[in-house]
Design a protein that fits this description.
The complex is a heterodimer of chains A (about 160) and B (about 280). Chain A is mainly α and about 160 residues long. Chain A has a single domain, classed as Arp2/3 complex 21 kDa subunit ARPC3, CATH 1.10.1760.20. Helices cover about 70% and strands about 0% of the residues of chain A. Chain A contains 8 helices and no strands. Helix content of chain B is about 35%, strand content about 30%. Among the domains of chain B are: about 65-105; about 170-250, Thrombin, subunit H, CATH 2.40.10.350. Chain B contains 6 helices and 12 strands. The termini of chain B are far apart. Chain B has about 280 residues and is an alpha+beta fold. Classes of the chains: A mainly alpha (about 160), B alpha+beta (about 280). The interface of A and B includes residues 49, 72, 77, 87 and 122 of A.
Amino acid sequence: MPRPAADILLSILVLVLQTTVVRFLAIQGIVPDIVLLWVITIAVRRGQIPATIAGFLLGLALDLISGPDGVLGLTALTKTVGGFLAGYFYNENKVLQTMGGYQILLITALITLIHNLLYFFVFLQGSGLGWAAMMALYGIPATAYTTAIAVLPMFAYARKVLA
Amino acid sequence: MVKRLYDIVLLFKEYVVVSFCLLVSILLLALNDTPQIRVLRSYAVVGVGLLQNAVSFLPNYFSLSQENAALRTMNLALADEVSRLREGKLENLRLRQMLELKQRGEHRYIAANVIGKNLQLLRNTITLDAGEQEGVRVSMPIVSESGLVGKIISTSGHYAIGQILLNRDLRVSAKVQRSRVDGVVRWDGGTTLQLREVARTMDVQQGDLVVTSEYSAYYPEGTRIGVVSRAEPIPGSLFLSVEVAPSVDFTRLEEVFVLVHQPDSARIALEHRSR
């Protein structure tokens, strides 16, 4: 199967998983963001432009799916930023090393933290929560959870299953 | 030239892509009317207000003598009008006592300068340099010496945004002062306002004054809106097409008053319940 088609199919699968299965993994209301994890994977494997576009389109799809409960455009904005920033870690010659090593965990932690800072800064406006409380209650736990899930693709790449 | 532009775009293609995606996202965010976006808008109002306030004094120095002359003329006209209104009020009081009509409460006015406005959009607004600290609240009517300007839709500490009559989202319950015919004033994007919901058998003529109606929970009744500039039956319809020239010249609007007139929440709640 051509690479772009496989990526599109995987993107749809990730979107479906995020909106159906992943919510059952919630701990105290915090769920891992596998869509962002997938955008970071695209960034490390394919580069900045595909990751930016994927982040925007997947974020927009999540915004549309969330309906009146969400803020239209917010997920598209934050995932675009996430994809763009993650793209700075793209190195054509070190894809396997980055994906299969501890680097992917560091990249995921950093990008997810920035993503969550931006997301919760907007989403919790008017809730009365300050910066510290916002990060302590939502930002850092969500970042830790998503980073923990990033161990799965890391091991998979380390064993060259996905390579 | 085109090739050079293309080369530049190609050179910065990552930034072009991310800018486009961010622009679309922000435009989508701006379409929301959630509490989160309202809070962000109030931050934006503060930022833009500070900026506009910093530069708004500049043109005033150049047109000071002209402005003084205009103010003197207006002062003279207003003094004359106040004198006539006092006579009218006394007469009104006598008549009200005779008819045992309920006396309406006096309103307090908050003076504000227009420090920003847009008139080219379909949802036009003005930015005022008075906000919650001065007592301005959402839904308060905005008036000028010429008549109704609009209503407040967003506030911050020292700034507020008002929806003006030239805004597609604004509806004002109105009536023709002479014939007491009711209707709803709205703007469809032209140079005039429209008085809607007027049956073709109603008595509406060119030159009639249109004022706010007592049916409105948001605006005090009798506030001048405009003058009927055209009234003719809509072919194949039971309604009249009534065009109203607004009393307020929005292009020259510089100072306004926010009327401390909070909507009667009990009345609105009752009306909502009965729908």
